[in-house]
Amino acid sequence: MVRVKHRYLLLDILYPDPSSWPSSTAPKKAPLQTQSQLRIHSPTSNALTPSLLAKTVREGVADLFGDWGVGRLGGVGAGGVSVKYLSPATSTAIIRCPRASYRLVWMALTYMSCVPEIEGSRSKWSDVAMTRPCVFRVVRVSGTMRKAEEEAIRRARREIVRLRGAEEAGVLGNLVGGLEYEGGSAVVDDVMENEEEDVDMGSDEED
């Protein structure tokens, strides 16, 4: 029996365009670095469902590579691309695709530039207007779902450390050094001691 091999792409949805920032994403009393960080990583609309994201990726592959690309994914109705995890609150997703064609999916994600707006009602998921500008950034390619989940947790912890460091720098009059932490914070020290080392994106790909 032949085992179908897959790849799992962990991706972040980022909002670098100020026009896409919600007004209530970051607290006004927070330092400017913290506000910008929170707005770039702001939540995504619940209108972006796993099925809609998978459909958009398949359409992106079809636009870029035509019938050949769709065939590499397993055909139109084969479900070669599926979204295993999607969190609108953290703008994070994990996409599963065939191992032989994960680069096609990656390229389609690179060219995707819009998601649904935060506000607005819809009657059907197919009627959603993709008008909010964004960037899809692939941060990990793994051979197993577990490795992708571990990387998502590790990156979330690291982001918390960066934001805490920025907040502390604002409170102490920028004496700590902001996001580039160089010492003097017990909170950052305690968290960083428990952090795992960064893993290269392609180092743990499994067959």
Explain what the structure shows.
With 207 residues, the protein is α+β, with helices and mostly antiparallel strands. It has a domain at 6-143: 2-Layer Sandwich (Alpha-Beta Plaits), CATH 3.30.70. The chain has 5 helices and 6 strands; from the N terminus they run E-H-H-E-E-H-E-E-E-H-H. The protein has helices spanning 32-40, 50-72, 102-111, 145-171, 186-193; strands at residues 6-14, 82-87, 92-98, 114-116, 130-133, 135-142. The strands form 2 sheets. It has a 4-stranded antiparallel sheet with strand order 2-3-1-6, sandwiched between helices. A hairpin with a 4-residue loop joins strand 2 (82-87) and strand 3 (92-98). It is globular and about 50 Å long. The two termini are 16 Å apart.
For this structure, the CATH topology of the domain at 6-143 is Alpha-Beta Plaits
CATH class of the domain at 6-143: Alpha Beta
The helix/strand series, from N terminus to C terminus, equals EHHEEHEEEHH
Radius of gyration: 19 Å
The CATH superfamily of the domain at 6-143 appears as: Ribonuclease P, Pop5 subunit
Q: In what order do the strands lie side by side in the largest sheet?
A: 2-3-1-6
User: If you average the pLDDT, what whole number results?
Assistant: 75
Class of secondary structure makeup = alpha+beta
First CA to last CA: what distance?
A: 16 Å
Overall CATH architecture of the domain at 6-143? 2-Layer Sandwich
The main sheet comes to: 4 strands, antiparallel
Oligomeric category:
single chain
